[in-house]
Write a structure and sequence with these properties.
It is a single chain. By secondary structure, the protein is of the alpha+beta class. It has two domains: 55 residues; 145 residues, Nuclear Transport Factor 2, Chain: A (Roll), CATH 3.10.450. It is 40% helix and 21% strand. 11% of the residues are buried.
Length: 243
């Protein structure tokens, strides 16, 4: 009898061992799931935090200026596109745009093409690329491949105000003089160009900002030959004075 009782006791104790092992396995399983869930929650929280912080992350380019005389270094203030620009600055930019985009010198043609593009709107840049394409018979690359150069002299700029009070239109009068490779000049031709412009956010591309730090954009540019009979005579253009 005593042996039977011991055997029963042994089986009961063995059953408790199995129950303990099952309980430990279940607890370990629950802990594993909790750890995995916590890991997923941390990963999702990190991704959401990065997504919320991404609009706050931006790269702001800046221009450092060094005084050639004193060696003093300072940072050129950045134009944000929100303040009113003085009319004298707009006059300069319009004159500079017409000068760069309408002249042609074979040695600087590529640089002038890129600089002009830095002031164009996307639509205007499409027109600009089509005008310079070698497949276009009127392209300056085809017209002046014999070495002819075109010099430009701006005469005047006139601003116009729309009925709604918006100031975004101007007319620029200028002359163009063609000079052949042997230095012979043709008679100057008088032109008038109507431009629609706007000030936008300056480009973040350093190459574009070196030409156009104020975000000045030409939306439309329509040059036409001047037809007025009393066009003013302008002084002759000195070779090399345009650059």
């Amino acid at each position: 009898m005593s042996g039977a009782k011991e055997l029963v006791s042994y089986f009961e104790e063995a059953a408790t061992w199995d129950a303990d092992r099952a309980a430990v396995a279940a607890r370990t399983h629950r802990i594993a799931w909790v750890v995995a869930l916590a890991g997923w929650l941390c990963a999702i929280s990190g991704a959401v935090a990065l997504a919320l912080l991404s609009p706050l992350k931006s790269v702001t380019p800046y221009l450092i200026r060094v005084d050639s005389t004193t060696g003093v270094v300072d940072v050129v203030p950045q134009y944000t596109g929100t303040s009113q620009v003085a009319e004298t600055v707009t006059r300069f930019l319009l004159q500079h745009y017409v000068d760069v985009c309408e002249r042609f010198v074979w040695a600087t043609a590529e640089a002038d093409y890129e600089e002009c593009g830095a002031f164009n709107s996307p639509h205007r840049n499409q027109q600009w690329a089509a005008a310079w394409a070698t497949s276009n018979t009127s392209s300056p690359l085809n017209l002046y491949k014999d070495g002819t150069s075109v010099a430009v002299r701006v005469i005047s700029e006139t601003f116009f105000q729309r009925a709604n009070g918006v100031n975004d239109l101007a007319q620029v009068r200028y002359v163009k003089i063609r000079r052949s490779l042997d230095g012979i000049e043709e008679a100057p031709t008088h032109w008038i160009a109507t431009l629609q412009y706007i000030y936008g956010t300056p480009s973040k591309d350093p190459r574009i900002r070196q030409w156009n730090p104020l975000g000045f954009r030409i939306l439309e540019f329509r040059p036409e030959p001047e037809t007025s009979a009393d066009v003013q005579t302008v002084p002759a253009i000195v070779p090399g004075s345009q650059r």
